[in-house]
Amino acid sequence: MTVLVASDLDRTLIYSSAALGLTMPDVLAPRLLCVEVHESRPLSFMTETAAALLAELTADPSVVFVPTTTRTRKQYQRIRFPGRPAPYAICANGGQLLVDGVPDRDWRRQVARRLAEECAPLEEVRNHLIATSDPSWLRKERVAEDLFAYLVVERQLLPEEWLKALTEWAGARGWTVSLQGRKVYAVPRPLTKSAAMREVARRTGATRTLAAGDSLLDADLLLAADAGWRPGHGELADAGWTAPGVTALDLAGVVAGEEIVRRFSRNARVRRED
Hints:
single chain
């Protein structure tokens, strides 16, 4: 039996210093391992326990670990996970499928065809984002992999009514809006992590899929998996989102990431023994 483990990264498996959520007394805080450096500075972390569990999980030949992220390929490749390198990775919210680190051209062509047929073009959405944003809270605007757009904002200044109006405008054009930390994402609705996960499952012959994620963009991934977990923080937790087969953890921050890897390991082991 092959078990496919597809996990979102930021604020699910790995955490920036601002997202660690270390609410316990300092003497009880977990030891951390830096797994990403950017511009010569440590950027993302796991607990050492989570890192050891992940290394053990990926060493099992019956488990296919698939990092699954909205990050671009370049952003993803900064991460150095412990254990065996992942043979597959899903980037750009499903727009890029990496096989041994190399983008799969056939998959990208399939994605491009669906986007052209089912939703408004990227340039229209990007222009709307720029035109309706306010310089008082907008810090950056970016396009990722020529697939979707996002803004970096001062979240405390971001008007709720603007976000609501954007969500309605984008939805009518086949796009989804997601607020994650300081970033507002506008992503084509057909661009999903779940579609890419199904493709990897097909290629690997996986008979069971496990998933984890914290944001609205992870909901389709969790629904598509045989079993899923979400931490006690993030968009899904804030909305009280639940679904059959998805476990809502009470833990938040980096310790939730550790618990997610532990649940992956336990579930994969039980299924193998069955």
